[in-house]
Amino acid sequence: MKNKYIDLIEQTFEFPQEEFTIEDNELNFHDVPLMDIIKQYGTPLKITYLPKISQQINKAKRLFNVAMAKVDYRGTYNYSYCTKSSHFSFILEEALKNDIHLETSSAYDIPLINSLYDEGLIDKNTYIICNGFKRPQYVENIAALVNSGFHNTVPILDNKEEIDLFNGVLEKRCKIGLRIAAEEEPKFDFYTSRLGIRYNEILELYKQKIKPNKKYEMKMLHFFINTGIKDTAYYWNELNRCVNLYCELKKICPELDSLNIGGGFPIQTSLAMEFDYEYMAEEIVAQIKNICNSQGIEEPHLFTEFGSFTVGESGAVLYSIVNQKQQNDREFWYMIDSSFITTLPDTWGIHQRYIMLAINNWDKEYQRVFLGGLTCDSEDYYSGEAHTNAIFLPKLVTGEPQYIGFFHTGAYQESLGGFGGIQHCLIPAPKHIIIDRDKGDTEYYTRLFAKEQSYRSMMRILGY
Ligand SMILES: Cc1ncc(COP(=O)(O)O)c(C=O)c1O
Asked: Which site from 23, 193, 277, 284 is most exposed, i.e. has the minimal number of CB atoms within 10 Å?
């Protein structure tokens, strides 16, 4: 009878996969034996597998450049990384090995840019695309960048008033972008995004406030579809509206030459998921070219700001099962040694699913379980995967530890969870390690980025 955990996985998915393989009933992630990592560092444990970041960036560059070559697209493709998806220095250091640009979201992002410049990781030609609502400190910091010679800093105006704030503080000519407020997917509570400027106000804003002011060079139109880049009528419709607006604006604004389509390239959240990246890149590029050419407009340089796509698949969290509870005839709870709310807040906040796999005991029988976190919050649990509303793990054997891993968790979880701050029931932030490979790509090595949060650090924050 095929009732082992390995049978279940092999029957449900194409398995093994490039990233996930099995050796002696234990899981390897990118050929790294996770049991070795657990033996060395324990659990709960956050992992960043650095090489994946560069692989993702180069994959996107390849996809868009090939798509452009196929239709003889005359603009360039510019990969930007949106820092908000993971601000950590080791993430930016890896990402910046690949000749990319950066997108910022708030005032405190700018010291981060300065630090990268001091380290020699970026130069003054790097595009710094400044999104987000502009509070006075953010305006001041952006202006300081422009004034110090970062000539490719592009504040993207989020509302009509922001342009006035820059007037008094800019000493040099400044590139400007405008964010279009996208229409939301029909399932949303509202029709139009609060982020950005209404479609029908963009041309007027340009004519009244940007064109007459010699300080500004109107370079970029920006739009971002909150629900991501997907092959849906909704996405294509929004892209079309945006490119049409680009053409309208270009007719009265010759210096406009760039279109920023934001973030939203998806990542794998289930072993069953396949996304046709090639088709999407080709379709986006071809549609932009067709619309522009049909209106006699030269196609724009393309910018993307992929966050999840850059770092999501590099991250993982490993937990131990510390207890099993049977609360009725059918429901088995496996208690993890941390909390979902604090370490993977998206599982709680937006019911995000991730790839979840047992690390060991693949030769044991499996059963349906619920995973419980350590906080007292009844919502601190995980109960379903992207492809099925249930989870299965090996049956526990007395005396044998069981470890599990959540994969592709590298984007947003630390900033949403308030890494190193105060969290629910004072559950500490887990230890975080980095896995990298030597130059020849043969051996992997690990290094500790952060120890498990100490009670002293919490006491200090709490004022004790
Ligand atoms: C303006 C902007 N660009 C890019 C991103 C990155 O999106 P993703 O992580 O889905 O690629 C976001 C995410 O909120 C965003 O608001």
From this structure: 23
Nearest CA to 455 out of 426, 424, 425 is that of 426
- On whether the CB atoms of residues 430 and 343 are closer than 8 A, the answer is yes
Distance of CA 119 to the CA centre of its chain: 24
Cβ-contact 366, 5 below 8 angstroms: yes
Sole residue written with tokens 């991730």: 354
Could you give all domains of the chain from N- to C-terminal order, each with its CATH number? 5-50+312-461 (2.40.37.10), 73-306 (3.20.20.10)
Q: Give residue 388 CA to ligand 1 midpoint distance, Å.
A: 27
Beta strands 366-372; 391-394: pairing state: antiparallel
Between the CA of 119 and the centroid of ligand 1 the distance, in Å, is 26
Return the pLDDT at 121: 98
- Which residues of the chain are under the pLDDT cut of 70? none
Q: What is the pLDDT of residues 395-454, one digit of tens each?
A: 999 999 999 999 999 999 999 999 999 999 999 999 999 999 988 778 999 999 999 999
Phi, psi of 454 (to 5 degrees): -90, 160
The structure tokens listed for 288 are 């932009």
Which of 59, 85, 222, 313 gets mutated to test ligand 1 (max ligand atoms within 8 A of its CB)?
85
Q: CA-CA distance, 236 to 238, in Å (whole number)?
A: 5
Instruction: Report the residue among 134, 197, 305 best suited for mutation to probe ligand 1: largest number of ligand atoms under 8 A from its CB.
Output: 305
Distances (CA, A) of 33 to 49, 117, 136: 13, 36, 49
CA distances from 128 to 78, 149, 181, 332 (A): 12, 12, 21, 50
Kindly report the protein residue whose alpha carbon is nearest to atom 5 of ligand 1: 263
What Rg, from alpha-carbon coordinates, does the chain have? Answer: 24
Q: What is the pLDDT of residue 443?
A: 93
Q: Ligand 1: which of 79, 224, 311 to mutate, judged by most atoms within 8 Å of the beta carbon?
A: 224
Distance CA 226, CA 235 (A): 10
**Which amino acid is residue 187, in one-letter code?**
K
Q: Write out pLDDT tens, residues 228-262.
A: 999 999 999 999 999 999 999 999 999 999 999 99
Main-chain dihedrals φ then ψ at residue 320, nearest 5 degrees: -100, 150
Ligand 1 site, CB within 6 A:
82, 85, 103, 131, 224, 228, 262-265, 305-309, 411
**So what's the pLDDT on residue 225?**
87
pLDDT in tens, 189-213: 878 888 899 989 999 999 999 999 9
Looking at residue 183, what DSSP letter applies? B
